[in-house]
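Priority: medium. Attachment 1 of 2:
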C-alpha cells in the first residue's frame, strides 16, 4: 500500500512560446470567420423555400397558389446581396467581409498601383460589394467537394479573373481611391441619377 502522506507534485503549467501566439491568433481569427460563414450558410439553408412537391399541396384548406405566395413572403427570393435588406444585408456583408479580409485579400490582393487601385473601404462601393459577393457565392459552390476536382480551377478562370479585371481597373469602382499604398484615399464615384418621369404641369 502507498503512503497517503506523499502527494504527487502538480504538473507544470502549459506555456506557449511568444512566437507561436501570432500563429494562434491568426488561426483563431480564421476559425471564427469560418464559424460565421457556416452560420450564414445555415441561416440561408433554413430560409430556403420548401421543395416543390410540398408547395403544390394545399395546406389547411388554403389553395396551393396562396400557400406558395405566403412562403415566398417569409424568406428571401434571392441569395444575392443586392436583393437583401436590413439585417439580412448586414449579416451577409459581415460574412463577405470575413471572406474578403481573411482569404481573398491575403491571396489575391496584389500590390496597389495606378493601374490596379484598391479601397480599404470597399464595402462602401455598391459595385464592389456586388462583384465580390458574386465571386464569394461562386467560390462557395466551386470549392465544395461536390464541385469536383476542377471546381477551383473553374472558379479562377470563370469568376476570379473576370472580377479582378473589373474591380481593379483604372476606371473601375475604385478609380477615385487608393492608387498608392503610401497615400490612402477613398471616394465613392457618383453614379448616373435615374431618369425622372416628368409630369407636365
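Attachment 2 of 2:
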Amino acid at each position: 500500500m502507498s503512503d497517503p502522506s506523499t502527494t504527487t507534485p502538480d504538473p507544470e503549467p502549459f506555456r506557449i512560446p511568444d512566437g507561436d501566439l501570432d500563429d494562434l491568433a491568426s488561426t483563431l481569427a480564421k476559425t471564427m470567420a469560418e464559424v460565421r460563414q457556416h452560420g450564414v450558410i445555415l441561416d440561408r439553408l433554413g430560409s430556403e423555400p420548401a421543395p416543390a412537391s410540398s408547395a403544390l399541396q394545399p395546406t389547411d384548406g388554403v389553395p396551393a397558389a396562396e400557400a406558395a405566395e405566403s412562403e415566398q413572403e417569409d424568406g428571401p427570393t434571392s441569395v444575392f446581396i443586392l436583393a437583401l435588406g436590413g439585417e439580412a444585408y448586414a449579416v451577409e456583408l459581415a460574412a463577405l467581409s470575413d471572406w474578403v479580409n481573411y482569404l481573398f485579400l491575403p491571396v489575391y490582393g496584389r500590390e496597389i498601383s495606378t493601374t490596379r487601385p484598391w479601397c480599404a473601404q470597399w464595402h462602401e462601393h455598391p459595385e464592389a460589394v456586388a462583384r465580390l459577393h458574386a465571386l464569394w457565392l461562386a467560390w462557395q459552390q466551386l470549392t465544395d467537394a461536390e464541385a469536383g476536382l476542377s471546381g477551383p480551377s473553374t472558379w479562377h478562370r470563370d469568376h476570379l479573373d473576370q472580377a479582378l479585371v473589373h474591380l481593379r481597373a483604372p476606371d473601375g469602382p475604385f478609380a477615385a481611391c487608393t492608387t498608392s499604398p503610401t497615400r490612402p484615399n477613398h471616394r465613392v464615384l457618383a453614379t448616373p441619377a435615374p431618369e425622372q418621369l416628368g409630369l407636365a404641369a
